[in-house]
Write a structure and sequence with these properties.
By secondary structure, this protein is of the alpha/beta class. Helices cover 35% and strands 15% of the residues. The chain has two domains: 193 residues, Rossmann fold; 161 residues, Rossmann fold, CATH 3.40.50.2000. Helix 1 packs across helix 13 and helix 3 packs parallel to helix 4. The relative contact order is 0.12. Keywords: Transferase.
Length: 395
């Protein structure tokens, strides 16, 4: 089978959006299929492979260099900053389809170059919706091809994190989605809530389905090493976002645990949120994905902070489960846990006594689920199961 993937995010990008389709591409190749990719972002050594085409609008590429230094909150030239802030707000009100609008013409040009090439399966991944439009164009040029649209994040139904000015572009979002969905064999959403939002908006389409975030268990599972350790490492790796996922509950609880040999480590972007450190609770900045995976495997116990009421489910939920390790899960105001069915979890809300968290850490610091138990819990979310779901569109 010949497969074309259109996805702005691709290694060396370290985002979950990149991780998903890089893994799926590799899986398709191992199954004997021919796979080509149109992507953007930073160049990679693998770009020498003529099946990867990377295009970008000039000067839009962000360097992957991780900066862990804490920037001063003192702002100079307040007039200049005020003007820039106004410009940014205006800019965000006018771009379409999303912040990567500038990639749209380049991806379209690359698709047009392929007009004489036949692909059995074409996949467009959003974000960015530019990739969806480009993949749809290929479908219009080759009606016999099967089109799959995969939403890592929702496009038109995310009120909590709108991708464009819905007041201005709501009609256009709806029109374009309707046309694309009508020509798609499969429209995949990563969780039930996003699925229900889209089904509510477009009840006449029958091609929506849930294809969850995938996790390659072998990347995260590590057999327990029987060693005497002076320190118990309890850690969180991930981003925080204002009004979506904030660290306040976790910090309030963990700062009250004063046991010298328990360290609480946080890594990842704060996105402007305050982080109050204490004696044993610290934030160590942003790390790349390889380092993040290494940290997750090194921690004795993992920390998760639930999202507030928004349709997105972080892929790291399944990555935490894939370790088989104990998890302290700080609930949001919805009190909904993403870890139902996972046996080694403590769900914490504002009423949870600190002593209960201490007890959980001390009791479970050496616990680990077996690989078989992990695979059973994540059945349907592994690389093979998700990959086969997409291949079944044609086969």
């Amino acid at each position: 089978m010949k497969i074309l993937i259109v996805n702005y995010h691709f290694p060396p990008s370290t985002t979950a959006h990149s991780y998903r389709w890089a893994l799926l591409r590799d899986y398709f190749l191992t199954q004997g299929h021919n796979v080509e990719v149109i992507c953007g972002g930073l160049p990679s050594e693998s770009d020498t492979d003529d099946r990867i085409t990377r295009v970008n609008f000039p000067k839009t590429i962000k360097n992957n260099t991780v900066n862990t230094q804490i920037k001063s909150t003192v702002r100079n030239n307040s007039f200049k900053n005020t003007v820039l802030s106004i410009i940014k707000k205006l800019y965000r009100k006018i771009f379409w389809p999303d912040g990567l609008w500038h990639w749209l013409p380049f991806s379209i040009i690359e698709v047009i170059k392929l007009k004489n090439r036949n692909f059995d399966l074409v996949i467009g991944y959003s974000p960015t919706f530019s990739a969806v439009i480009a993949s749809f164009l290929y479908k219009k040029l080759h009606k016999e091809s099967k089109l799959v649209i995969d939403f890592g994040d929702p496009f038109s139904v995310s009120k909590e994190m709108p991708v464009n000015n819905y007041a201005l572009y709501g009609w256009l979002n709806r029109y374009i989605e309707s046309v694309v969905f009508k020509n798609s064999t499969l429209v995949s959403l990563t969780n039930k809530k996003t699925f229900e939002l889209y089904k509510s908006k477009y009840p006449w389409f029958l091609n929506f389905d849930i294809v969850p975030h995938l996790v390659n268990v072998t990347d995260f599972y590590k057999n327990k090493e029987i060693v005497d350790k002076d320190i118990v490492r309890v850690g969180y790796v991930g981003a925080f976002h204002k009004n979506i996922r904030e660290p306040s509950l976790a910090l309030d609880k963990l700062s009250l645990i004063d046991i010298d040999y328990i360290n609480f480590e946080f890594y990842g972007p704060l996105n402007g949120l305050a982080f109050e450190t204490s004696k044993l609770v610290n934030h160590y900045g942003v790390v790349d994905r390889d380092t993040a995976i290494g940290l997750i495997k090194a921690f004795d116990i993992l920390i998760n902070v639930e999202n507030e009421d928004c349709p997105m489910t972080p892929s790291k939920i399944f990555e935490c489960m894939a370790t088989g390790k104990p998890i302290i899960n700080f609930l949001s105001s919805t009190s909904i846990s993403s870890f139902s069915g996972y046996p080694l979890v403590l769900n914490v809300d504002s009423d949870t006594p600190v002593d209960r968290i201490k007890e959980f850490i001390l009791k479970n610091k050496n616990e680990l689920l077996t690989l078989h138990e992990v695979e059973e819990i994540l059945k349907g979310k592994t690389l093979k199961s998700v990959g086969d779901k997409y291949l079944s569109v044609v086969e």
